[in-house]
Amino acid sequence: MPLLTCKLCGKIFTSSGGRTCPDCHTRLDGLYPKVREHLRDNPKTDFNVDTLANELETDVRDIQALVDMGYLDRDIDRRADPETLNRQKLAQEFESSLKQMQESAAQRAQNAASYGQQRYGELNKKK
Ligand SMILES: [Zn+2]
Questions:
Q1: Residue-number span of the structural domain to which 49 is assigned
Q2: CA of residue 126 relative to chain centroid, distance
Q3: What is the tally of structural domains in the chain?
C-alpha cells in the first residue's frame, strides 16, 4: 500500500485508496451529516465553502475536502456558477472535437500506412 501525506493534516499514512488519513476521514464522516443538515435547513441560502465553514465553526479545508471528494456535489448548487457552466461547455466541446480528431486520425493512419508502403517500396528500389 502506498504511503501518502494526508492533504488535510499533513500526517503520513498508509493509504487504502483515500487521500485523507483515517483520523481526518473519521472527522469528515462526522462532519458530512452536519453539513447536509445545515444545507437542508437553509435551502434558500447560497452557500460556499467559506460561509459553511463559518456557520458550522469548522475548518474550511474540511468542507473543501468534502466538496473535492464529491460528497456535496448535489448539495451545493454550483449550476449557477458561470465558471462551472463554462467548464461543462468546454468539456463537451472537447469531447466532440476529440471524436473528430479520432476520426481524422484514423483516416490519416490509413493514408499514412499506404504512403509508408509507397515510400518503403521506393526506398527499396534505390538500394
Ligand atoms: Zn489527516
A1: 22-77
A2: 54
A3: 2
CA distance 24 to 115: 59
Q: What HEC string does 82-116 produce?
A: HHHHHHHHHHHHHHHHHHHHHHHHHHHHHHHHHHH
Question: How far away, in angstroms, is 57 Cα from ligand 1 center?
Answer: 18
Distance 12 CA to ligand 1 centre (A): 8
Tens of each residue's pLDDT in the chain, 127 residues:
789 999 899 999 998 777 889 999 999 999 999 999 998 899 888 888 999 999 999 999 999 999 888 888 765 555 445 566 667 777 777 778 888 888 888 888 887 776 666 666 666 565 5
* 11 Cα–ligand 1 center, Å: 6
